[in-house]
Amino acid sequence: MMTIDHRITGNRVRIYSITELTELYDITARTLRHYEDMGLISPERRGNQRLYRERDRVRLQLILRGRRLGFSLKEIREMLDLYDSDPTEVTQLQYVIQKGDHKVEELQAQIEDLQTIVNEIKELRTKMQNRLDQIMRREG
Predict the structure, then answer these.
(1) Cβ distance 74 to 39 under 8 Å?
(2) 41 and 35 in contact (C-beta within 8 Å)?
(3) With contact defined as beta carbons under 8 Å apart, do 60 and 32 qualify?
(4) How do residues 101-116 score in pLDDT, each as one tens digit?
(5) Taking the model in full, what pTM does it have?
(6) Backbone phi and psi for residue 51, each to the nearest 5 degrees, phi listed first
(7) Which residues contact 86 (CB under 8 A, 6 or more apart)?
(8) Strand partners, 19
(9) What average pLDDT does the segment 30-50 reach?
(10) Which of 32, 110, 117, 140 has the largest CB neighbor count within 10 A?
(11) How far is the C-alpha of 62 from the C-alpha of 83, rounded, in Å?
(12) In this structure, what are the phi and psi dihedrals at residue 15, rounded to the nearest 5 degrees?
C-alpha cells in the first residue's frame, strides 16, 4: 500500500494498486476493471497504472457486499449513485431498506419453494422405498 502527498493540502492520501485491491478482496483484476468499465469505481490513471483511492476501496467493498447479498450491479449502481447525490444519506438509506425488504421477500419465497421440493423428494423416496420393500418381500 502506498501513500502520496496531496499536492494542494499536503495531506497524505492512501493509494492502492490493482494488485493490492485484488489481493485484499480476493477478486480478479478483470473483475475490478469490469467495475471500472461500468463506472462503479473510478481510479486515477497514471499512464497504464491505475491508482485507487480510499473512496474506490470503500465502493468496491460495498459492491462486493451487494453482490454477495444478491443485488444486481444495476441496483448497486443506483445505491452508490444515491449516496453520491445525497449527502444526508436519507434517500440512499430509504432505497437500500426498500431493496433489502424486497430481497428478503424473494429469499423467503425461494426458501418456501425449496422446502416444497425437499418435501416432494422425501415423499417420492418414501414411496420408492415402500415399493422396493414390497418387491424384496415377494422375491425373498
Answers:
(1) no
(2) yes
(3) yes
(4) 999 999 999 999 999 9
(5) 0.74
(6) -120, 120
(7) 92
(8) none
(9) 94
(10) 32
(11) 11
(12) -125, 140
